[in-house]
Amino acid sequence: MTAYNPSKTFFYALRQVLPIIFSYLVVGFAFGIMMQEAGYTWLHALFASVFIYSGSLQIALVPMIVAHTPLLVMAASAFLINSRYMFYGIGFTERFKKQGLLYPYMIFAFPDEVYCVFCGTNYPSDVDPVKCDLWSAVLCHLSWISGGVIGAAFGDLIPLDL
What we know:
Blueprint: H1 6-37, H2 42-51, H3 55-66, H4 71-82, H5 84-89, H6 93-97, H7 103-108, H8 112-120, H9 129-154
């Protein structure tokens, strides 16, 4: 059995997803500003970002909420916007099962960008692939949440009318 280096595993995951982290902070910030301009607080942006981990859905959701779109229409839109995850996620079910109890989170935390990282990652021998996948997913999700909260919290300080 190979001895994995925990710190190398973390930093390898960070290196793999660093470009995604920066982009998620920017797009999440834009979502947060949209939430703030729609009259919602940073707390709303926090909960939306924790439970809806889909940038395209969140950006589309704000105008739907403001327009009082029926819940059934929003649910159908959410399904259609995110249905692509089902198709490319099928090939990762065995890989995600290695996460044990975190298997459902790995399915949830699998947007397009993380999919691309997982498809192209060749793990060094001292990097734990299971923990590296988890770190990659968690770091990306946290950056998305952070961007949304920061955008909603400080969006009123930016003199833009979106």
